[in-house]
């Protein structure tokens, strides 16, 4: 196997370990040693891919955000988008905690979260084809992303006593009713 492929494989193992540690139920437990132990690699391989812990944490967050964005982009309907996002973020709560909760407790992610948010807003705004006014599109997309972020965060945290079906139906209703409103 070529060196580049081996390096990419090791980087993927480290990112996978980082997702597990950053999104752990007890909160982020990301140290270089913990990541290497979890990935079954030495620190030498960590530093082969990342300059330091902060760069690594941002790479883990970016990986989860990119997967979330790809999931949403592939959806053809609001229902499909919500169901796929629930599968990605709730069925695998570790990823959900990385995306939604880690930026609150991991200072290095404050900026990363702020950088990714406009991407999610722009994606939703492009889907709002029934709304012709671009300013209104942006207002609706921004408010929906904010509301959905709060809902998913509360659901992941266990603060919403809704069944999965109720949660999905509510999110879909929120999306479709807001888009249809004058």
UniProtKB/TrEMBL annotation:
Q: Which UniProt keywords apply?
A: DNA-binding
Q: Which SUPFAM superfamilies match?
A: Homeodomain-like
Query: What's the protein here called?
Result: HTH tetR-type domain-containing protein
Short name of one Pfam family for this protein?
A: TetR_N
The UniProt annotation gives the DNA-binding region as: 31-50
Q: Which InterPro entries match?
A: Homeodomain-like_sf, HTH-type_Tx_Regulator, HTH_TetR
Domain HTH tetR-type, by residue range, is: 8-68
Q: List, in alphabetical order, the Gene Ontology terms for molecular function in this entry.
A: DNA binding
Source domain of life: Bacteria
């Amino acid at each position: 196997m070529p060196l580049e492929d081996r390096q990419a494989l090791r980087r993927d193992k480290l990112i996978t370990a980082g997702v597990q540690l950053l999104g752990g139920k007890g909160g982020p437990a990301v140290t270089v040693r913990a990541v290497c132990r979890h990935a079954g690699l030495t620190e030498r391989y960590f530093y082969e891919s990342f300059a330091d812990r902060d760069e690594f944490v941002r790479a883990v967050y970016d990986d989860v955000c990119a997967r979330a964005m790809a999931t949403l982009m592939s959806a053809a309907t609001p229902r499909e988008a919500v169901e796929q996002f629930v599968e990605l973020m709730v069925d695998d709560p570790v990823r959900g905690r990385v995306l939604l909760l880690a930026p609150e407790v991991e200072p290095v992610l404050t900026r990363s979260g702020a950088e990714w948010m406009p991407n999610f807003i722009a994606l939703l705004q492009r889907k709002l084809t029934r709304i012709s006014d671009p300013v209104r599109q942006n207002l609706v997309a921004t408010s929906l992303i904010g509301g959905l972020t709060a809902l998913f965060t509360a659901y992941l945290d266990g603060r919403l006593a809704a069944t999965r079906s109720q949660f999905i139906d509510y999110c879909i209703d929120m999306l479709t009713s807001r888009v249809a409103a004058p």
